[in-house]
């Protein structure tokens, strides 16, 4: 028996109403995300990746179709704190220490000081930032700031992590290291991760499932289940299996353009 999908989208459609007329951002998007999957969304700029993630997070409301998150509506899931969200920019408050930034959602949710301290210590350890609790964001590198923002999304221990191009602004070496760390974190926590990226190697390296999207209106052109093993050293990127999946992603992206 296959486990019940954590996220289930069926024929989602979303049209934004703007002053310049309607913008058809998503069309007929159907997808099942199984528990514990690492799903990447890849596609050209403006194809609706962020919009789809924002629908899952109940930050946008689809104009058609059905969406369930943890068996609830997206809105119920948001209120039940079913997910943590990591944005493109780290978005840390400069006047708060790293520890206080990570504690912020816990503070808002009314956790006791003791619970806050325990959780902050645990998630900072998970993202390899133990010892940086008292530092301010400006004292950390860009990669470390992004790790702190991942820690903040992990603070209340949601089963789902939604990540919108979290490493897009980082240089390649730092990005490689964070990719490795994210895989380790995913293996340790067994969370379900939805990850938006522009990078084919990043999508192939990280994912159990790669969702290829077409230009506007955003549709799913291919869902590739990765045959790569869970244990992935960075040099797996040089193997024929990896190159073959990357090739299929590229073909899917190209097909989307040519339709
Ligand atoms: N609030 C909004 N109002 C009107 N149009 C919007 C809104 N949000 C997004 N769009 C439009 O919807 C389309 C999809 O945008 P979205 O940000 O989801 O794309 P994306 O694939 O994430 O792009 P990128 O890779 O550049 O971040 C774009 O044409 C965008 O201009």
Descriptors for this entry?
Rossmann fold, 2 domains, 37% helix, alpha/beta, 6-stranded mixed sheet, binds adenosine-5'-triphosphate, 8 helices, 259 residues, Sulfonate ABC transporter ATP-binding protein, AAA+_ATPase, ATP hydrolysis activity, 3-stranded antiparallel sheet, single chain, globular, ATP binding, 24% strand
What does this 3D model show about the protein?
The structure is a single chain. This protein is an alpha/beta fold. Helix content is 37%, strand content 24%. The protein has two domains: 7-82 and 160-258, Rossmann fold; 90-157, no CATH class. The chain has helices spanning 49-56, 74-79, 98-108, 113-126, 142-154, 172-189, 200-206, 240-258; strands spanning 7-18, 21-33, 38-42, 64-69, 83-86, 160-164, 192-197, 209-213, 220-225. Strands 5-6-7-3-8-9 form a six-stranded mixed sheet, sandwiched between helices. A three-stranded antiparallel sheet has the order 2-1-4. Strand 1 (7-18) and strand 2 form a beta hairpin. Adenosine-5'-triphosphate is lined by residues 16, 18, 23, 25, 43, 45-51, 216.
- Compute the average pLDDT: 91
Radius of gyration: 18 Å
Q: Return the structural class.
A: alpha/beta
Q: Which CATH C-level class of the largest domain is it?
A: Alpha Beta
**Succession of helices and strands:** EEEHEHEHHHEHEHEEH
CATH topology of the largest domain: Rossmann fold
The strand order across the widest sheet is 5-6-7-3-8-9
GO molecular function: ATP binding; ATP hydrolysis activity
Organism: Pseudoponticoccus marisrubri
Protein name: Sulfonate ABC transporter ATP-binding protein
Keywords: ATP-binding, Nucleotide-binding, Transport
